[in-house]
Amino acid sequence: MGRNTRKRRTSPAARAVAAAAALALGGGGLVWANFYASAHESDDGVRGARTEAARAQVATISCPDIGQRLSSVPRQARTEVDGELATLDRQITDAYQRLATTRDAQARDADFVQNSILGPLGDRRKVIVDRIVLEVGRAGGTTPAGLDTLTTCTGTPAAPATPDSTDSGGQGDGPQGNQGAQGTGTQGTTGDDGRQTGAGQSGNGPSAADFVDITRVRSDVPAKPRRTRDASTGTFTTRCGVNANKNHNTDNVIVAPGVTNGAHHLHDYVGNQKVNAFSSNGTFLRGGTSCRDAEDLSAYYWPVLRVQDGTRDFDQNADGGGKEGNAGRVLVARQAQITYVGSPVGKVVAMPQFLRIITGDAKAFTNGTANANAHWSCTGFESKVQLTDKYPICPRGSDVVRTFAFQSCWDGQNTDSANHRTHVAFAGAGGRCPGGFEAIPQLTMRLVYSVPRPTVRGGRVMNAYAVDGFPEQLHKPVTDHDDFISVTKGGLAGRIAGCLNQGRSCQ
To answer: Are strands 424-425 and 442-449 parallel, antiparallel or unpaired?
Structure first.
């Protein structure tokens, strides 16, 4: 039967593991264990061969992301389904704990991971998936065919680091390959067999291959759609600050309502000041705002950016912070520009109250790039270069820039959806919305940071910076994302749409 998912939850793995933290969201993902088992090789070579096999098996666990498959869940079943997905989450973190605490057993028995961790994990996942199917069915819905085939998880070995990669723009590394090491107090750790087990201040990235000198990148910014005579050419800018008051938490009320530390990484919040896992639409209306326009109570939030210089920030020992691989000094943006723009091919309708939009994918490294929407650049280069899968190394005097352009098409009915994506969409290459969608003001955000310049030398990156994320995502730049909840008073939503439609510049 279902449970009350409003109960406050915390992550078991976050309490048990620090630098080698691993966690997955929504019942799926890649759990990354930052270690290799150690053992002495036997004289006849058999034990040594089994030890090598065990070492290769215990590095990661990869599970299909059940939550992303559930694109349609009846509203009355969503609370229960959210609870079941949280249970899948806990099961994977429990499996990670078992990996982290059974090194000797794994070294002695090459079948230990399959028999004692992966097999039982699959059995437990099947029970939860069966419950999800039952709960959705009771509410009159249906689940995707073959959902029960997604319960099996696999062990994936971590490739040893390549010690001599010298180009920050060189080969990328897949989920198993975390190449390079972090310098100046942030070196990756070394296993008992002498192999590099991770880069970054907490051993889970980023690596040297995640950085590129922006001056060496060719222009790659696509042309904008041509405007028609009916285009809504205005702009509306809202000034909400840079979170100088340090309003942070590791919740995500959109994806994981009622679940403490549901994001597993730290967020910056501007705009609405009462956003946490237990906030409601009523809470938002009473939340106050950091915006100059008191009628803008919208929530604008994004994962923090950190410089991995060996600093132990306030959340070093906290869930979602250092306990889960998010370490280093939290940076405050120098600028946070929030602007609404119109459609190049027609007029826009006002955003509905309490519309929720997520742009980008916090798990794009393991989920793939279908929903990725990261854009990295440097001041002075934004019109020429926008990077998706690399952090830019900016020339002296230039700052790092994160840019987000949210979905600008709405289905005209829903303010959210089961997977938090299908109720909104991006316009096509020509600027028009898909069939059944209508154009709304497009939210754009530009975050500018004064970041100490990283140095890449001999396959190592010193003074790296990285976006916060789930530990298994290895702090890859492609995982950058942004979240938004539209909350306005006094007819502000209509005024924003009117400003754009009339071609005015407003604030």
So the answer is: unpaired
